[in-house]
Write a sequence for this structure.
C-alpha cells in the first residue's frame, strides 16, 4: 500500500516512530513524502540520512519517493544558486538565505556542524563566497538529494504535491510535472501556494486524488485538531510536526484511508481512519 507522509521539518524522533509503525502494519509499504524535510527542527541532517537510507541512496526508485517542498527549494537555492521555483542569480540566493534564516535555515546548518558565529556572520554580511563555504558543510550526497527532488510524485489514481494544484486545472494529458515545468506560475503554485477552505470543499477538475502538505491543518478555522483534512479528491497531511499547535507527524494510507501519527517527542499518539 501507499503511505503519504507530511512535512517533517528536521524532526527525527517522530519520523523514526512513524516509519517503524508503518513497517509493522505494512511490511511491503510504499512511502511517498510530501516535502519540507529541512528547517525549523534540530535534526535536518539526520532526517536526510534516514530518508536516503530508505532506498539505499539518494534516488527516488524503490521503497520511497520524495516530493519537493518550499523549504527544500530554498535550501537548494542557497546550496546551488538555483531551484525549481526561484531564479538563478547571486542576489536571489543571498535574499533566500537571509529570509529563511528566520524560518529554520539556521537550525538546518547547525545540524551540519556550522557554528552559530559563522551563521551570524554570514547573515550580517551575506555574500556568495560565504554561502559557498556554508554549502561545503553539507555532504555531496545530501546536496544531490536536495537538487534531485521533483515537485510532484504521480501515480495512476493519485498524486502528491507539496503545496497546491489549482482545483480548476487538469492533472492528466499533460502530466502535472510537464505542466509545472513549462509555466513559472505553476512552479510557484506547486511549492508555495495555499488552499482556501472553499477550495478544499470545492469540486475538482482533477482526474485523481491529490495529497498535499505545506499548510498545517490547524491553520484552518474549522479544523482545530491536528489530524488530516479530507475533502473532495483532496487530503491535507501537514499536521504540524514542528508547530506548537500541531506537533504531530502523519502517515496516511491511500488505499484504506487509515492514518498513523507520532508526536514531536517520538511518542505514537494517534491511529485513525
Amino acid at each position: 500500500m501507499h503511505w503519504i507522509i507530511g512535512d517533517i521539518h528536521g524532526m527525527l524522533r517522530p519520523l523514526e516512530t512513524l516509519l517503524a509503525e508503518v513497517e509493522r502494519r505494512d511490511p511491503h509499504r510504499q512511502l511517498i513524502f510530501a516535502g519540507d524535510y529541512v528547517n525549523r527542527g534540530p535534526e535536518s541532517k539526520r532526517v536526510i540520512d534516514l530518508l536516503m537510507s530508505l532506498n539505499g541512496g539518494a534516488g527516488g526508485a524503490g521503497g520511497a519517493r520524495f516530493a519537493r517542498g518550499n523549504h527544500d527549494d530554498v535550501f537548494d537555492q542557497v546550496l546551488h544558486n538555483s531551484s525549481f521555483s526561484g531564479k538563478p542569480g547571486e542576489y536571489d540566493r543571498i535574499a533566500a538565505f537571509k529570509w529563511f534564516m528566520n524560518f529554520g535555515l539556521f537550525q538546518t546548518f547547525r545540524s551540519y556542524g556550522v557554528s552559530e558565529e559563522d551563521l551570524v556572520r554570514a547573515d550580517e554580511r551575506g555574500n556568495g563566497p560565504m554561502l559557498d563555504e556554508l554549502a561545503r558543510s553539507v555532504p555531496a550526497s545530501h546536496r544531490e538529494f536536495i537538487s534531485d527532488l521533483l515537485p510532484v510524485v504521480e501515480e495512476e489514481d493519485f498524486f502528491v504535491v507539496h503545496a497546491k494544484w489549482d482545483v480548476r486545472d487538469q492533472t492528466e494529458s499533460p502530466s502535472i510535472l510537464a505542466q509545472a515545468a513549462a509555466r513559472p506560475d505553476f512552479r510557484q503554485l506547486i511549492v508555495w501556494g495555499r488552499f482556501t477552505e472553499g477550495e478544499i470543499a470545492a469540486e475538482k477538475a482533477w482526474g485523481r486524488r491529490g495529497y498535499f502538505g505545506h499548510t498545517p491543518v490547524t491553520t484552518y478555522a474549522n479544523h482545530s485538531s491536528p489530524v488530516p483534512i479530507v475533502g473532495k479528491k483532496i487530503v491535507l497531511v501537514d499536521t504540524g510536526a514542528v508547530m506548537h499547535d500541531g506537533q504531530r507527524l502523519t502517515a496516511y494510507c491511500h488505499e484504506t484511508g487509515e492514518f498513523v501519527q507520532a508526536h514531536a517527542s517520538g511518542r505514537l499518539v494517534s491511529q485513525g481512519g
Q: What stands out?
A: The first helix runs from residue 12 to 25.
